[in-house]
């Protein structure tokens, strides 16, 4: 009889089960289990990973910001150095130009001095030659006078 009672309980329990949806205590238990698993996963897995991803995004954003700031600063320094280089080149060209002008002035002054010295030497040589010419003419005149006196004396003595 005991078997029969168990069998009737089994038959009655199988008749109640077997529907497509059984609304017994397992459905709320499964939903609570799902919610608990979601909370645990959120606390243990999703939040730390999302925090790590947020920190990485922030690090990348900061790195990009600092890199762009460094790039802007490098561009400004490049422009400044290029401007200074251009100014230095202009100054060097001006110095070279002034040096060339100064050298031309020095050369022209020395050429003028050399020409004056040459003119002075020519004047001195011309004056010396004139003086020598006059001396030669005087000595020739005296010699001509002496010779003419000798000739006259010889002509008179004869």
UniProtKB/TrEMBL annotation:
Belongs to the ATPase B chain family. GO terms for cellular component: endomembrane system; plasma membrane; proton-transporting ATP synthase complex. It is found in: Cell membrane; Endomembrane system; Membrane. Keywords: ATP synthesis, Cell membrane, CF(0), Coiled coil, Hydrogen ion transport, Ion transport, Membrane, Plastid, Transmembrane, Transmembrane helix, Transport. InterPro entries: ATP_synth_b (IPR034679), ATP_synth_B-like_membr_sf (IPR028987), ATP_synth_b/b'su_bac/chlpt (IPR002146), ATP_synth_F0_bsu_bac (IPR005864), ATP_synthase_B_chain (IPR050059). HAMAP family: ATP_synth_b_bprime (MF_01398), ATP_synth_bprime (MF_01399). The lineage of its organism: Eukaryota, Rhodophyta, Florideophyceae, Rhodymeniophycidae, Ceramiales. Gene3D superfamilies: F1F0 ATP synthase subunit B, membrane domain. This is ATP synthase CF0 subunit II. It holds the Pfam family ATP-synt_B. Residues 108-150 form a coiled coil. It comes from the Eukaryota. F(1)F(0) ATP synthase produces ATP from ADP in the presence of a proton or sodium gradient. F-type ATPases consist of two structural domains, F(1) containing the extramembraneous catalytic core and F(0) containing the membrane proton channel, linked together by a central stalk and a peripheral stalk. During catalysis, ATP synthesis in the catalytic domain of F(1) is coupled via a rotary mechanism of the central stalk subunits to proton translocation. It is a single-pass membrane protein. F-type ATPases have 2 components, F(1) - the catalytic core - and F(0) - the membrane proton channel. F(1) has five subunits: alpha(3), beta(3), gamma(1), delta(1), epsilon(1). F(0) has four main subunits: a(1), b(1), b'(1) and c(10-14). The alpha and beta chains form an alternating ring which encloses part of the gamma chain. F(1) is attached to F(0) by a central stalk formed by the gamma and epsilon chains, while a peripheral stalk is formed by the delta, b and b' chains.
